[in-house]
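notes to self, project folder thing:

trying the whole complex as one job this time. last attempt i did each chain seperately and stitching them together was a nightmare. two parts in total, labels are on each line so i dont mix them up again. if this works i'll redo the older ones the same way
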Amino acid sequence: MDWSAFRVSIALGLWTLLLLVPPSLLLSRWLAWRRFPGRALVEAAVAVPLVLPPTVLGFYLLEGVGADTTLGRAYRAVTGGELVFSFEGLVLASVLFNLPFAVQPMQRAFEAVPRGVREAAVTCGLSAWRAFWRVELPLAWPGLLSAVVLVFAHTLGEFGVVLMVGGNIPGETRTLSIAIYDRVQAFDEPAAARMSLFLLVVSVAAIAATVRLGRGAWRDVSRRARRGGS
Amino acid sequence: MSGLRARLRQERPMPLDVAFHCRPGEVLALVGPSGSGKSSILRAVAGLMPLARGRIECDGEVWLDSLHGRFLPARRRRVGMVFQDYALFPHLSALDNVAEALTDRPRAQRRARAGEWLERVHLKGLERRRPAEMSGGQRQRVALARALAREPAVLLLDEPFSAVDRATRERLYLELAELRRELAMPVVLVTHDMGEAALLADRMYIVHEGRGLQAGSPEELLLRPASALVARLVGHRNLHPGRILGPSATPGRVVVDWRGIHLEAAAASGIPGQGVDWLIPEGVVQLMRRQGPPRRRWENVLPGRVAEAVTLGDAVTACVLVRDEPSRRIRMRLSLHAARRNRLAAGERVEISLPPEAIHVMPSGGR
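result (full assembly):
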């Protein structure tokens, strides 16, 4: 097991979540409840990473934020660091690439909150903040949590974008999936097998968790409905 | 001016043109068929729906004034609203549902106060239940307690009885009637059920396709609708076109021509030749008894044939074709007992009488 790659992967997952979740909450809530011209366009733009080859996204990131680009120079001027072949660049790529994995489940979750219930919060005089914490968040919770799980698992497994933007720098940009590739290239199959098994377990656990969250929410509702009767 | 006063207008997305007021302690029913815009009116008053033009004033506070660009956001309007499906917070207990409406009070007081409200709507002991663990009637009571807990300036009820069964509904009517005597705020009730409105409201406002047609007491609207459209909306089925022939020999009456039949009708005035619509409530049409008193004591006596007679519980609704003419249909309702005694049945020949004072004449063109 390449522990430094493990640490990079975990750090990348956590940073991605930290940076991706707050704007995704806002964006998904906005897409779920607001009707405005161009909404379909925004939804389509969010979904693009689902079908875009990771290498294409990586290529444009290299072109867009490379050391010699305006953005790259501006980033260096402010932070002294680089956005390509660095951990920061990996996080940026991961955030962009994971946008649909966060926004889409969150949007579905917010859409499932009945309009009447949201309006009742308003007519009860709840502030927007309190309505969010007390009503919207608890009702959308399973969907939001499964978005978080999906994004984390997806980040651990990402390969193409990471290789394009980050390269393979031990301790900096070499993630678990890159390390597996690296070990296979070096004919170190036992190491590749251990890391592969680990990622397999994480992936299966993530999917099981999201399925369970989804079904759990449903079972909860139907159980309450049954008990309610009339 | 205390109470609620609203004037609302818009063209899109659905036309709306209404003006009404509701005094403190008064129950005003907005009545109309589904899709007539009643709920939109309520939503506009609550501030949940933006409105192009209008003015809403409640308890001396201006909530909306499009002329002066004033719009008070929904959460700052002191509104208590009961939604059609109650819209309770499904993840919170009955007590917490009510307590959420008390966030302007100190935290320590909220739950105690919420408990008092639940007790007031007869839900003591069910504080910890979640909405899904309660019956429709209990949910409605939680919604009512939540709406009242804020001590709102106006109580808005959007079809509050449509989601419960009939027996529960009757019980909730009584409870609301009882509760409203203690309420000092204006109450606006939206319903498509004429009977419900007549039972609970002091005044009704008939709404059709977003337009306010007529306001008045239930009795006024039932007996003296302003137009054939209002008459139809409040449920009249004996509604016919006619023409004024002139004043009757009896003062305070006119003679109306109904496809060749002359009817005496109570009406202060009428221009001879004027086209009118007239109606008579089903319950006041008289069936002439077969061996009854002499005919001259009755007025507007018409012969006809019973086209159908339907028994519903202890009443019979019959449709009589006057002079066997399918276009001259008069519906009447009488007790099962009276119908049996007079052998009222489909195909039978009968004579009916339309009491002139029960005939209401309206200018035509309002359909």
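what i see at first glance: Chain A has one domain: 3-110+141-229.
need to look closer tmrw
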